[in-house]
Amino acid sequence: MTVDQYVAAEQTRLIEELCAFLRMPSVSTDPSRTSAVRDAAEFSAAALRRLGFKTDVRETGGHPVVIGQGPLVAGAPRVLIYGHYDVQPAEPLELWAHDPFDPVVSGGVITARGASDDKGQVYAHVKGVEALLASDGSLPVNLTFLIEGEEEIGSPNLAAFVEAHADELAADVVIVSDGAMVGPGIPTITYGLRGMTYVTIRVRAAGRDLHSGAYGGGVPNALDALARLLAGLKDAHGRVLVDGFYDPVRPLDDRERAAIASVPFDQDAFMADAGVTATPGEHGYTLLERLWARPTLDVNGLSGGFQGDGAKTVIAAEAMAKVSCRLVPDQDPRDVLAQLEAHLTAHAPDGVDVSVTAEGLGHPAMTPLDAPSVQAATTALRQVWGRDPVFARSGGSIPVVSDFQRLLGAETLLVGLGQEDDRAHAPNEKFAVEDYLQGIRVSAALLRALARPTA
Ligand SMILES: [Zn+2]
Q1: CA atoms of 275 and 269, how far apart (whole Å)
Q2: What's the CATH number of domain 195-251+272-362, 3.40.50.720, 1.10.150.40, 3.30.70.360, 2.60.40.1240?
Q3: Which H or E run contains 112?
Q4: What distance in angstroms lies between residue 129's CA and the mean position of ligand 1's atoms?
Q5: pLDDT digits over 87-138, tens only?
Q6: pLDDT for 388-413, tens place per residue?
Q7: 86 is known as an active-site residue
Q8: I want to staple 19 with a disulfide (CB 3.0 to 4.6 A). Which of 103, 312, 367, 409 is the partner?
């Protein structure tokens, strides 16, 4: 029996099993759901045990990690499949057409919290292995599953877990399916993610707020100083003016620019969705290049001084801003933090103290387009979807991906099986039945292709 025949024959059961997984309200952020979170871990573990995988539910400081190890395949590549069994809260419940934890399959779509993010996608891989075993009798690679339960709360225990179990988790390639294709029927390989430096900037100019009549014209003003500092971080062409910021940025080569230009992207739909009438940004780059492959600096929050109704004649002693930088290879988030600190300190007006506190640091990640795993994924996606995949980068950050690169030295392969409009994190989250079944076929084809890289 081929994988295709197996998926066709078992379709009803494959969908029912996913629905059973979706019935568990494994909301990782909600302490009242702890037992459901554990149920979902045990459910994932049981599914892996039925494949003959040596499987454990491992304790962490928080929710457990499920590890499943397939049989040893001497001389074959080592592949790690990562996913998560936890989900976002379902609230607001009144915006759902039905109970978010009572999945409904209708019109070719499975609707439930977690359907696409990420239970449906990780379970497609589990069932892909099942289909491959039914078809071939054995696996072509050394395969390990790592399914965590804290992705939706920022994976606080995962990096330490991976580091502590680096030998056991050692892999040549890590497959992550926790995202979207660029559109229905358009298989997508995401080969780059941006990193992040997020800071709080505090400015202090006086010992207390001062009367603008008694002191105005003779003392430094924290809000004025902060506004000048922030305005000085970028020029009129959207270029970041922080010394050294762009030095490690890998330039976009012609091949990559061509690949990005070939991605189907509807700028009008993008603008309508965001409710914007312009798309300002760094000169010299297309919108998609700026969203995916160029670093950014954005003010995310500003406060200080009098915020109430009416007037209060006061010169603020303190002011605060939140600033995020999205980073691209080979920027280092700690270096960017130091650059920001140096720039802001050097440009602080007389008598004004500036402090910069890091709130979040994450490394960018990129898998080269000519990496053997990317070639193998291209082959697999072409087989299943009957067309070449699109190569995309993502403007967002998934810290665990750079952790896998850094701690395991693995190539990472991001193959989203869902759609951008699956309403992940939102009411009426869905996953197309076709995307689920194709995901199962993709997983099987991918493991076969990774066993014999084409490079
Ligand atoms: Zn997810």
Answers
A1: 10
A2: 3.30.70.360
A3: none
A4: 21
A5: 999 999 999 999 999 999 999 999 999 999 999 999 999 999 999 999 999 9
A6: 999 999 888 887 898 999 899 999 99
A7: yes
A8: 103
C-beta of residue 142 within 8 angstroms of C-beta of residue 77: yes
Q: CB of 200 within 8 A of CB of 356? A: yes
Calculate the CA 232 to chain-centre distance: 30
How many angstroms separate the CA atoms of 290 and 281, rounded?
A: 7
Global confidence as pTM:
0.86
The total of other beta-carbon atoms located within 10 Å of residue 312's CB is: 12
Catalytic residue among 10, 130, 148, 151: 151
Q: Is 39 exposed, middle or buried (0-12, 13-18, 19+ CB in 10 A)?
A: middle
Ligand 1 centre to CA of 121 (Å) is 9
> How far does residue 256's CA lie from ligand 1's centre (Å)?
27
- Amino acid found at 289: E
H-only helix segments in 348-421 = 372-385, 399-408
Closest of 191, 187, 188 to residue 386, by C-alpha: 187
Phi and psi of 378, rounded to 5°?
-60, -45
CATH 3.30.70.360 domain range(s) in the chain: 195-251+272-362
Residue 415: φ, ψ to 5°: -120, 95
Among the listed residues 366, 374, 368, the one whose alpha carbon sits nearest the alpha carbon of residue 454:
374
Hey, which residues does 80 pair with through a beta bridge?
144, 174
Q: Is residue 151 among the annotated active site residues?
A: yes
Rounded Cα gap, residues 309 and 287, in angstroms: 39
